[in-house]
Amino acid sequence: MSRVVVDVVLKPEISDPQGQAVLGALGRLGHDSITSVRQGKHFVLEVDGTPDEAELKQIAETLLANPVIEDVELHVTTD
Amino acid sequence: MRIGVITFPGSLDDVDAARAVRLAGGEPIPLWHGDHDLKDVDAVVLPGGFSYGDYLRAGAIAARAPLMQDVVTRARQGLPVLGICNGFQVLCEAGLLPGALTRNSHLHFRNRDQVLVVERADTTWTSDYRAGQRIVIPVKNGEGRYVGSDADLDRLEGENRVVFRYADGNPNGSSRDIAGVTSENGRIVGLMPHPEHAIEDLTGPSTDGLGFFTSVLKSVVAA
Fold first, then answer.
1. Is the pLDDT of residue B221 over 80?
2. Distance (Å, rounded) from C-alpha B139 to C-alpha B212?
3. Which stretches within B102-209 are classed as H helix?
4. Does A66 touch chain B (CB under 8 A)?
5. Which domain holds residue B166?
6. Mutation to test the B interface, candidates A15, A71, A72, most B Cβ within 10 Å
7. Confidence category of residue B223, pLDDT binned at 50, 70, 90
8. What is the pLDDT of residue A51?
9. Residues of A in contact with B104 (CB under 8 A)
10. Catalytic residue status for B194
């Protein structure tokens, strides 16, 4: 059994109003040292057997993330 | 003329789209997302709504529905396709139109009668308008902000593929006031505002939306 974590965040050039709203809330709570927040998605996939890296990359880049606006990172851990 | 209207789980405006087709003089054909059957339609409308609850990204899961595989294949061969609101999101996610639609810059759902400027009156879906014409049709979305990299947007503008721009105020923060775009061949059009809600004086702010549906009928007759 393997576990694959896929993190998806908006590309730096795409503005992130949700992250900005979180940043605003942090400022109101007094956390003035936080200068930027980018909000993303975090997927945890469990895979039977040894994961096929090419297949995982395809899943991440064609469904879990939209490459027009998002960057994606894969982290594989095997038990 | 047979104009298919696809229903996905969570579609809201499929009935209004079918009514618009009928009022324009076409025959609306209900299509179901889970089938592999386009029922010999001459064109397809992807309606507004919240397909699959907007899970993952708006339009992302609907873009991989069984019927969409047929739509993508036929659209690449020239089948006219119109995507309205969620339908526009589906077309971008399916790779039939460039760019992406993301959360409105102000984070609010925005619902109002919207002025648009027609930039292209030579697409399959806009031939009954004039270039430069101002039309008023409703806009209603929470994730309607059209985005792309500057290079992609420059290319899009260079290829003259912006069909509509917002005027008198941008409702969602879309890049360069872009409200709708088209494919290279002008047969696929996607826009966030809702022409199917502006087809009768009784229920809409205007009848400016009817031109989409009369335009496609002419193109299909001419083809």
1. no
2. 15
3. 150-158
4. yes
5. 2-222
6. A15
7. low
8. 87
9. 17
10. yes
The single-letter code of the amino acid at B153 is L
> What was the pLDDT predicted at A7?
97
What are the residues of chain B with a beta carbon less than 8 Å away from any beta carbon of chain A?
56-57, 60, 64, 92-93, 98-100, 102-107, 147-150, 152, 173
Structural domain boundaries, residue A59: 2-78
Q: Does position A79 have pLDDT exceeding 90, yes or no?
A: no
Residue B31 is which amino acid? L
pLDDT value, residue B53: 94
CA atoms within 13 A on the CB side of B34: 2
Run of H or E including B135 = strand B134-141
The distance of B36 to chain A (nearest Cα, Å) reads 21
CATH number of the domain at A73, please.
3.30.1280.10
End-to-end CA distance of chain B: 12
Inter-chain contact A13–B102, Cβ cutoff 8 Å? no
Question: How confident is the model over B35-55, as pLDDT tens digits?
Answer: 999 999 999 999 999 999 999
C-alpha distances (whole Å) from B109 to each of B104, B141, B144, B173 are: 8, 5, 9, 12
pLDDT tens profile B120-157 = 999 999 999 999 999 999 999 999 999 998 999 999 99
The alpha helices in B97-195, defined as continuous H runs, are 150-158
Contact B50, B10 (CB under 8 A): yes
pLDDT value, residue A77: 85
Residue B16: give its domain's CATH number. Answer: 3.40.50.880
